[in-house]
Batch of 4 targets.
Target 1
Amino acid sequence: MGLEKFKNRNVGTQNYKKLDLTHPPKSGWCRFKQVASRTFKPELFVGLWVTLREMINALFRGKMHTTQYPLEKLPISPRYRAIHEMLRLLESGHYRCIGCGLCEKICISNCIAMETRYDENQRKEVSEYTINFGRCIFCGYCAEVCPELAIVHGGRYENASEQRASFSLFEDMLTPIDKLNLQQEYQGFGAISPNADDNIKKTPLAY
Amino acid sequence: MSEIEPVKNMISITIDGKEYKAKEGEYILNAARANDIFIPAICYLTRCSPTLACRICLVEADGKQVYSCNAKVKEGMEIVTTTPNILEERRAIMEVYDVNHPLQCGVCDQSGECELQNYTLELAVDSQSYSIPDTKRETKNWSSVLHYDAGLCIVCERCTTVCKDMIGDSAIKTTKRGGSPLDKSLKGSMPKDAYAMWNKLQKSIIAPSNGTEYTNCSDCGECVAVCPVGALVSRDFQYTTNAWDLKRIPATCAHCSSGCQIYYETKPTSISDRREKIYRVTNEWNYVSLCGAGRFGYDFENRDAKKDKEAFRKAIEAFKKAEVINFTSVITNEEALMLQSLKEKFGVKLINREARAFQIFLDFYREYSGKSLYSLDFKEVMASDFVISLGTSLRNDNPNARYAFNNVQKMNKGAGLYFHPVGDNLVPTFGRNILTFTHKVGHEEAVLLLLIELFSNKDDLPKEVKEQLDREKLIELLGGDSKFEASFAKMMKKKEKFSLIVGEDLYFHPKAKNIVKLIAILEKTSSVKVAMIPPKTNSLGVALICDLDDEAKGYTIGYNALGDFRLSALGDGDLDAPAMNQQEGTLTNMHKRVTPTNVALEYNGYTLHDIVKELLGSSTTYTIDWTPKLPVDKGFKSIDFDSLPNGYSNDGTENRGYLLNNITSEAKEIEVDKFDETIALDGDIAYRCNPQRQFSDFTNKAHQIFEEFALYASPKRAESLPKRVVVEFDNGNLELDVKVDERIEGDIVAIPDFKSSKNIYELFGASRYQKVIIREV
């Protein structure tokens, strides 16, 4: 292909071609006729049929293409920093948090507060723990600094609430003891999402 | 505002090629620290004897390796702080300390304020060359306040050193650990000092020295303060917070006249209660030592006070019709000055019994010695080598005076004489050269006569004093024996600086005037210099600022004391007042120093300043606006509160507030009365004296101080008494439980005065000793 065309940068002298358009309808009647002829064409029923076919496929033949939120949720990438979770030790079921206070210290929006005490087993016990989600900016420093992998970001990303400040207590975030077997180990910030394999598709080149 | 005295005998030394000045006879380590040069050291404590446990302070002096904590500087000495060999030793020492040290830094209460951690990082220990089987080391609670985690202990022996050399309790010592012996082959292969240090470390651990599981001590908590790791922690503080969360507020302790510098460390109470709470009290333990009251008696604040307008109106009315204001010495200089202003404007009488007695004593002292204040402060007492204590129950009245008495014995190869009617079995344990005299109540003049006889230049004495000096008779009268002369001669060897501590017994003494005269003569004719213990927190300040009255009747306002209308920082009065940890102002302490204290906890009620402002119509905004108004003619300085420093510098110089001026005047001619030995009290005697750690209603309010308001007696005496007794005074009775104080000897019983509601001063009147009848309930 020659490049002559591109070298001509004198746009002012290009040749425009005028389309042969029909004149717009003049009277009311003519306008009505135009609307009616444009609306009622057989292609309309082709479209309606496609919709009906897909509806039947989705509802009765199990060929649904959309995610039924909020009934159904897509797994979220571990890189996403959602509401915190407190994990337990898998063997003993005891919570992992040792009460070192590093998360409280590192928190840049100052939304973590904790109380600790000397317990009966001569250990440091976390007696109270809260995160103020009205202030939390989900920076993830708390999870990053935690030496015990006790506080992590979970997958709960719905943060809408009735109040600007909503607090979570230790118990709210702690893995329920009966769901210990379902506790997911935190993969780290660089990890790929759990359904990454499913998301792999052929590059659609067919168009 | 630093008040560095010109120091004599400065010599020059070279450290790492640079020339510095140092005090003669000082240890290399201290000389380096004073010049802001860093030499690592773990086991050394300023003001205590070198322990030589850590050996990390190795330096090279004039080409020879020495321990800088133990070697003294010499003129022209050349010191090198690091050589390859020293660095190798230090690194090996830190590696050894790290062997088997639990990796629980995350929960350890030291939370980063850890010297083990710091030095491990400083010496870049990144690998471990040594190992040994660990020994099981149990965690123990030594007392109501002390928690010892042997697993974390690195046996630097700072706790035992401070307990022995500074506190004097010697309640803890090193004991056998039962660890496995070191591999002998290490002796050749590892650095020499590191091996020696490890060898010692592997054999020892700390335990109470009385052989039991529990310490028998004054629970001062100084061992907790000096612990470089988290091995010793106060039980109440343990695992409650990290050090980095605490806000440090420099203040002055409000419990006794020592006025130690402390830091209140605060943080919100809990997640639901965001009001600040004091979690602990810390101190600059290299330069000041606290007692149990100062360290653990911190939560005496008036927490829930609010601005009650009605109560305030009533208070103003009450002040308008008041004839008397009754107050205690737990008051700032500024508030004392406000009360004095009220007296000047409205003619109210000011009653403060303990300060009044001290004021009279000081007035006499000024008259006869020509000085407005006593000669020595207690730092100078600590620097003396012969210390005498008279008229004070050293163990109970003022912990820092006791520490000074003890420290002189331990550090200055000192000697001590202790005169007191109540026998004490702790004082003789302070050192080998201590003689105690348990004399009769009322024979204090005889003690002074004996001191004049022992120390004074006889030629300068007035005739009537000379006549009374019958050495043998005096010694016998005071309960001394024939061995006295020999022991005294031994005690006097190589002594240069003599100090005399006098206390409250003498201020509340029927012959106080004559006693002052004898003290003035003693000071004039000998090298003994006197230091006085003001009876309570700010008694010295009150005595200087206020024009106090002896007796008064009529409508009384009580400020933390009894009265018809009561202002109280304890929360039980008609109008709330701020406690000492909720207000700013200055206190005058026994070191003749005016020191600032700051607000640790918020206070929402009215203060005395609000009342005085309303009454006097003054234009001041804060209590501290009164600080520069303190009377200059009494020795105070006109300095704004905000420009008063509160800290110590590296060489131990105390930069706290300012020293009072000791104003000199013409001394009066002294005519001494004849000593009458028949004034001695006989029979059952009660002594007005608080148990250790109790000083006032405020210490009593603190939850970690629980010494009861009871009658304290020696074990022997307590045996002969029923469990609960009625003590009959001339002017009233008192019903008390009987408690044993194992440190007391003899028959005199101690009755505390820390509860102002019991009005103990009224019962005892003008003396600290009273004849009483003790009977069963």
Target 2
Amino acid sequence: MTETTGSARSATSAREEILRRVRRALADVPRGERSEVDRDYLAVHGARSAGENIDLLAENLAEYRAHVHRSGEAEIAVTVARLLAERGSRSAAVPGGLPEDWLTRVPPEVTLIHDSPDLTAQRLDAVHSVISGCALAIAETGTIVLDGGPGQGRRLLTLVPDHHICVVRVPEQIVGSVPQAFAVGALVPTRPQTWIAGPSATSDIELDRVEGVHGPRILDVVLLGAA
Amino acid sequence: MKDVYLGMPSFPEAARTATKDERLRANLTRATHTIRDKRAKAVTEIEDWAELVEAGKAIKDHTLRHLDEYLLQLEAKVTEAGGQVHWARDAAEANRIVAGLVKAADGGGDQIREVVKVKSMATQEIGLNEALAAEGVAAYETDLAELIVQLGDDLPSHILVPAIHRNRTEIRDIFRANMARYGRPAPEGLTDAPADLAEAARLHLREKFLRAKVAVSGANFMIAETGTLVVLESEGNGRMCLTLPETLISVVGIEKVIPSFRDLEVFLQLLPRSSTAERMNPYTTMWTGTAAGDGPRTFHLVLLDNGRTDTLADTVGRQALRCIRCSACLNVCPVYERAGGHAYGSAYPGPIGAILSPQLRGTASEIDASLPYASSLCGACFEACPVAIDIPEVLVHLRARVADAEPGHRAERAAMQAATYAMTHPAAYRAAEAAAIKARRLLPPDRKLPLGPAKAWTETRDLPELPKQTFRQWWKENHR
């Protein structure tokens, strides 16, 4: 056990020594100095109506090669079913809390797999699609934020399958800008978050953008309420 | 896998070799110009870029000036959220900690023989892969470019696109020759189409993601207020590593902490636009300790010093710690464009490397002593920097340090070699000047070199004055 004690002592001293080094390095900083950061940047770029935000979100998502669809409440089940069919999907993962009425038209040949603790990454690797909601979407950057809330589930659900159908309720889930996504109450910082702007992509080979490396290669975004 | 930058030749020597490699130069030129042009567009798209830069700079400066407090807050929050925090004074200590954590990850069974990795400058800086290999643990890079570098038994040459020196045919050949050695072989009849190469990487790596027990990452930001870590990426390999394995070990430089969640609203605008010229990168992952039922069950954060506190102690040089690793300075640098990333002899190439490496490592070695001279002081890097690091100012400051430490011939020789290099490469010089003139508008009108230890230098050597005409125009008119 002397080894454990030894490494514990060394760990404590590493912490203390780094903190001591930091304080010594900052000898020039007056004690009690408090500086405010000037936030002269804009809260949002340009004035847009709710409808214009929807259009901008759609445009920016499409520019990064997401497929954008608009659907009314009444047609959402048909839309989801159509997107599964168009991609030839045979199976789809369903996070807990996803509205059941989105799934009422899914054809019988598509197996719906509701999330459960035994749905492992290995099993998900054989699942074609996933259907999820989101926490919010940012119009200016074409970004969707997932935070593991109802209808979104564990992060691996929206990661391992190759086809992600993501439903954004508009206009209520849209914010205009990145700063608006950080407004108090918009997001809970400590929830696991995934920010998505278009499907997986790489430009590592001669800077040619290629869609799809490890994340879902097909991202269908349904703007629900924008029919 | 090849070891890092030990025994690297000094910058002028390495640059001389690199500038003779035509393919490397052609790839670099195309790549840097492409990113540079796209970036200019992404930056001009938002009208408050200058204010965002100012805020980014201010947040980072503020954090650095209270670094001890924010590190303690971060430690408390990460611990509260179920994570374990470790402190590493130097590379060897960090490597030892990580190796120990990997070996203990299966409950002390010592059966873990591989980890998956997200591209991380910090782990490259400390040579973690090599250290793990020495312990019998294979570290698989999962970023496509890093995979290319690793399979090619090569060194990265660019912060953002480490395989920028390889073209598609070379990549195909590397995949065909070497994928089988590390796992799933390249598909039969693999072509050199980027989409096919990406598909080959997907298949090769998926096998590894699904079986990995341990992942190692860095982080772009750590939020003191909440204990949240943030990783920005494009390919989804980051999400795989940060989500699927049971144990996650993140090695992060102490300068990566920022005070509040809200501060991300600045950096999530600055970094993607400045780095990949995108409004937003495809994927960003944020996690706070561990979350029940979602992601790794065990999370370790290794806070790395390794020369950062030395850098912090230098009141001129500490601004280098603001760096958010966007690589914009590389893409505008005429010296980098000609010399390539390898010539800088560290994980940090380009202008930022020229000021970071000699501060993190000191200037005792030939390469580190020569790095402050790996510049024509054109100022294009300063103009491009999203956190306004005055790289030329720090370069001049470090030249003074090198000259003071060894007033004899070595510093002079390094300076002369670098100057000769720039003068004998007119295209580089021309590009530098053109970029510098564009940068004028962002510089204060009376740009004086800092005095102090550099006084001996600055009295006789001014920074380029950023003339209204280029040096070449002036030369033409005055030296007929």
Target 3
Amino acid sequence: MTSLPTPSAKKLGLVIDLDTCVGCQACATSCKEWNAQGDSGPLTDTDPQGKNVTGPWFNRIHGYEVKEQGRDDSRIVNFPRSCLHCEEPACVTVCPTGASYKRAEDGIVLINPDTCIGCKLCSWACPYGAREYDYTQGVMKKCTLCVDRIYNTNLEPEDQVPACVKACPTGARHFGDLGDTSSDVSLLVKERGGYDLLPEMGYKPTNKYLPPRARRNTEQAHIEKLPKSDGSTMEKLFLWADKLLSNKSASAAANPQDDSGKLEG
Amino acid sequence: MNPAYSVILFTTASGAGYGLLSLLALAGASHGRASTQAFAFTSLFIALTLITIGLLSSTLHLGRPERAWRALSQWRSSWLSREGVAAIITYPIAITFGACWSGLVDAPALIAPLGYFTAFMCLITVFCTGKIYSSLKTIRAWDNPLVCPIYIAFALATGAVLTAAIANTFGRFVIFQAILAMVAIVASSVLKFIYWRKIDNAKRSHTMAAATGLGEGVRQWEVPHTSMNFIMKEMGYVVGRRHARKLRLVVLFFLNLSFLLMYLSTNWQWLTYFAVPTMAIAAWVERWLFFAEAEHVVGLFYGKQSA
């Protein structure tokens, strides 16, 4: 059924901290590694060793430069982008076959690869680019929130989280129930002002992004300036030593404009 | 958006087929039985063949064509599913109408109700086709109230030109057919012209700032992958936008040429045959541009500042 279920109390999702993400791609690669052999597999990349490698990945890490107003410096923000498991996902309602669905019990948006016809309409309906087509299997693929990990009692309890969360070395990815206002992830969102992507489109994403923290004073981070010449005896001594030790002809060849042998500064 | 030829063929061929079928059905509804069986069979065969080619072509776009039947199940929420259901329902109705209209089945009283019903289903099906695209909020150029009327106008224009050419072959050409085609062509041109004005002037309400939540000063610094991915191939098509102005003129030129040929055909009936290819070119280029010109919101994550 591609009609949406009544919103569940439980809303499993991710909270991504843009302040601590270092853009290392560990989440993307561990996602690919886990999902290539699980329910969504094989997630084949075509021409994997060649120049035009392409294939479905559920997690893409963008890098953005943010120029803050009134500052002449900018900062880099690493920005992982994956399915946001929206509360009102258009990708589900446009599906003509019922292959695309939102789970009533926990809100996870999934695709049934056995009934998907590969019409790609869901990828057109998603503003976040979360769905990618598997050219080798002829069906759409997407983030499953590692549904085959989070309920998998064969795994150790600490491993029952999405592969991307488990892999993140800086703890920038958090998994939990965003429908429960007292959960760790909900408290984190509240504390850090977590936000939705493209909220005006009305798909009500479950995943939240935590904004980068405000910059500390960066004045002290500038390159230390060279000290001015003070004309002291000690400096003259160093100048003399520098002149003596400098191979004049080599210096002239390396730096033809400046063969004075004078210390800069 | 990537203009897939299978989808362009689907929308143009099935549109022309439904346009032709609806006009034949309305002709039957108002005039009763067809003048000759040969005319009825030929015209219905062409209409249903165009529709079938279009529908089969749409399945070529699928990754798993053998599962296409599953697309009929989600008509409660999906316009693509509704389009499929409407298309399937139209077949038996059109065939029953054809049997009565051609005289194969002697039931003159049924021609009019079946004719209106067939024409109505043609309209519904083409409307659903347009709605597949116009229901997508992620594509500004498609999320537009003129999209469905344009799909219907082009279906009627291509169908009317075909009607005139087929009628001419069977010596059934009347000036009314040329007038009908001319009206539909003018309607298509005007609607398309207004549509282009609208999409060019529409506010780009979605920004990279809102997509990333990183504020006004955000710009792309590093792309997430070193080669193309599906999203870039499917949504990042730029050739159409680069040549949009020229191609719009091509569409309008061929629409005008078709109009002129239909006008002149009132004197020289053989010109109806030349209007068929000119109208086909107009419809094809228009539909190619409809896809190629459309920009997807996901471009905001890939460096577009607004969409």
Target 4
Amino acid sequence: MIKVKREKIKIVLPGEVVKVGDIKTTTEVIKLDDKLVSTLIGIPKMKRRRGERVLSVLPLKTPYIPKEGDIVIGKIVDIGVTNWLVDINSPWKAILPISEVLSKPVNVSKIELKDYLNIGDLIVARVIAFDLTRDPLLTIKESRLGKATRGLFLELSSWDWLLLKSKEKTLLRGVKKKANCNIVLGANYRVLMIGKGLEEELKALEIVRETLGRRST
Amino acid sequence: MKSKLKLIDESGRRIDGRLLDELRPLRFEVGILKNADGSAYIEQGGNKIAVAVYGPREVHPRHQARPDRALLRTKYRMATFSVKDRKSPTPGRREIEISKVIREALEPALLLEKFPRTAIDVFIEVLQADGGTRCASISAAALALADAGIPMRDLVTAVAVGKVDGRIVLDLNHLEDQYGEGDMPVAMMPSLNAITLLQCDGTFTLEEFKEALELAKKGIGVIYEKQREALRSKYLDALKTYRVI
């Protein structure tokens, strides 16, 4: 998607007819009679899905909508009796129940939840359930998930994040090799760089910047 | 209140030198505020209005949340220094009503059902008022909502038409609004050719009403292009900062 030449870039705006005809579309495109209308600011793109042509618009800015299976980077914002509330950069706060943190059943009256995760802690988690009627549910009971004890945290715009994601493999390899760091691309447009110390992490940040290809900053 | 003030001269020019179907100088800017999720600014004649959009976000107080769609909240506010005589900072009857009509003009364009149990807040600050602020606010609010990445069927564009010295004119200014015979704000989703707001104050014959509506559609077409241009230029500029494309 990033191989488009600048002169050829076409941005569509809300209400703009992207195409006319009977083509399958993703959710950011709505059908009005035979017109396919974009609902967001973005770059139109034709995809192939199971042999069928699907019209989509790559949004330049959009709120994060949780999806089952997404790896997200969250921040603990509140502690309940049997759960934590987590800010995952989406319109809804996520819930992290005790059972998805500890492997054994525990007596809530005997433990302090804040001894495990306190307000302000960053976690890498997976969305296990979300369907718009209830708040998203998280788990950290998998390998590579859990509390981030150190690291450098970035919050990107959805477009910046898409750019990074499209180069994920090169980025992961580059950061590992040149900066000796691990990097987590959370689906919620957040990035976490974890290394031995700040120096390595700053090096990783430099690589991220290069990947984004920003001329300034 | 009728006065002897002459609003249209013999050559058919209006009090500020415009023709009957001429808009005031118009300028939009998108993304003026860093802390808001979306923002826009409009200058239309003497009007200067800033709009900020926050959300979708959690609803407080919680009981206001709708289980099937997002709650749209708008707050139209005039700054104390926006008019000649200092305006009291407390929201008055007029501001509350305008907040409501703006909300209802924007609602049909938004796909609110995509964000159930959340709220989208639109804050409209009139920094300087010169007639037709509700229309200018709607046009700017639509841009701010699009800038926030909220899915919309179309942008919403608004303009006021009115009757001045017996003639139908486009885009009333403060004097024409106050001393004219009628005032009719119209908001539309131009691509869908759907009207989302139609108010009318004063007396119009059926013919005058039809003429006024046609004139409003014409004006809205021009403003719509300016809105699109403002959005497009902001996002193209943003893309240009990348070397990769």
